[in-house]
Amino acid sequence: MKNQGEPKADIAGVILAGGRGRRMGGRDKGLLPVDGRPLIAHIIDAILPQVGSLMISANRNLESYRAFAFPVVADDQGKYLGPLAGMASAMQSASTPYLLSVPCDSPLVPPDLCARLYIDLKKADADISVVHDGKRMQQVFALLRRGLLPDLLDYLGKGGRKIETWYGEHRLVLSDFSERPDAFLNINTSEELEALAKIS
Fold it and tell me: Each residue of 30-61: pLDDT tens digit?
């Protein structure tokens, strides 16, 4: 990975698994089985080679997530406040200049995700690089400068929750992944989980 441009040791990864799973009947999506393994296990396999360290953002089933042997961080700003709260808690726990975030329900993560986000961020001298799949921005597939933490905490402290609003306040670059939109398939329903099991 280093020959693709990004300093791996400078990037911490976080898998965001802190939601309520409302559209899955309240089930914890990261722990749902695909091919006999939890969804999050597939994502760990994909992300771990791309980053210098890895953590999991979760607000329930903490012991189940700790069983994967990575640090588990809960939202400091209050539970279930959305992905920005998970990103903020991860930034507070990390000691690296950059944070890579991915959701817990998208197991088809590209092996070059981090490298491409980093290259685009550096080329654009941006604060945040975010995947665009050719149709829309995939908001939580993002690389962020950890120096944004004070501003993010301020935004959350004032009641801000919308990820696109906070992103819009900073230098943002979209990273073009339009050649592989299926890589960002996320699982929100039992039907989607069954469909994933058939193609994975």
Answer: 998 888 899 999 999 999 999 999 999 999 89
Helices then strands, each counted (H, E), the chain: 7, 9
Instruction: Find, among 127, 137, 109, 108, the residue nearest to 172 by Cα.
Output: 127
Contacts of 170 (CB under 8 A, 6+ apart): 126, 127, 128, 148, 151
For residue 199 the two structure tokens come to 């193609």
Predicted model pTM:
0.90
Q: Each residue of 136-178: pLDDT tens digit?
A: 999 999 999 999 999 999 999 999 999 999 999 999 999 999 9
Strands (E), the chain: 11-17, 33-34, 37-38, 53-58, 72-73, 98-103, 128-132, 137-145, 172-176
Separation CA 137–CA 174 (nearest Å): 8
